[in-house]
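Most newcomers find our protein records easier to grasp once they have seen one. Sequence and backbone structure share a record, each on its own labelled line. To make this concrete, we reproduce a full record directly below:
***
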Amino acid sequence: MYAVTQSEPGPPSVLTWSQVPTPEPTGDEVLIKIRSAGVNRADLLQRQGAYPPPPGAPDILGLECAGEIAALGPDADEWEVGDPCVALLAGGGYAEYVAVPQGQVVAPPEGVDPVSAGGLIEVAATVLSMTELAGLDSGDVFLVHGGAGGIGSFAIQYGRAVGTEVITTAGNADKLAYCRELGATHALDYHDDWVAGVAEATGGDGADVILDVIGAKYLSANLEAMAHDGRIAIIGLQGGSKAELDLNALLRKRGAVIAASLRSRPVDQKSAICAAVADDVWPLYADGAIRVPNETRIPMPEAARAHELLESGANTGKIVLTV
């Protein structure tokens, strides 16, 4: 098969379309013939050498895909060859085939284009698992950073679907308009004083749950913007990994800072999250409560161009590689 490979960490130009052995499914794995794969910021970090795959995972990039079941491992009993599917991966999505435990594979959401489906499960599983950890509930004020990106495009809509008031941040007028179109009640330019904007939008109360893809750079500001009994859920480190935390301020707000990675979770946890996505999120696509975000499709052999686009910050919504 062909896959996107790299001989060393580096810029997007290190990515090449090369022949590699086709994986064989073992145990309860299934082999998926890939039709499309989502591009995520974690892929950029792995390409740069800053986010190695967990032990036993393929070193090929790609954390999600859509396609059809091509073969079954000896213990795989939940699928048949030819079934359409989407999968949450620990790696291997930038390829023509990937082997994955059957628990991390689900049917695509009803009514969604099969190519678009390749860019849905990673963000859905990330947001669903982290908002459950953070205790997001109807009536909460939900602050979503990076609202125009892949995570943000989903999180805004999911927050509205479960009855929260969504505030988001983005970088320019077009992206702010896009966030409002998705359902954000307030969209704030992060170049401005967005902490003051959150305070104004909430009458000084702050946000109950903050979904943060920035990390260190926003930690102090997030604490200031958080409501009493609020929770900061960190899912990305675009702004660095080390910062000082005013524990006295956290105590006064009775707050919590939560951080978790989806990729490194054991298979049983990821399988449970995938099942919850199929049960709780996919119906929201079917009834129109959540729609597929803006999408840029790029042929998989041109993965370097996809990485350049994501790194530029110019993209809105999701980038999907097509086979």
Notes: The longest helix spans residues 267-286. The CA atoms of residues 104 and 191 lie 39 Å apart. The chain has a mean pLDDT of 97.
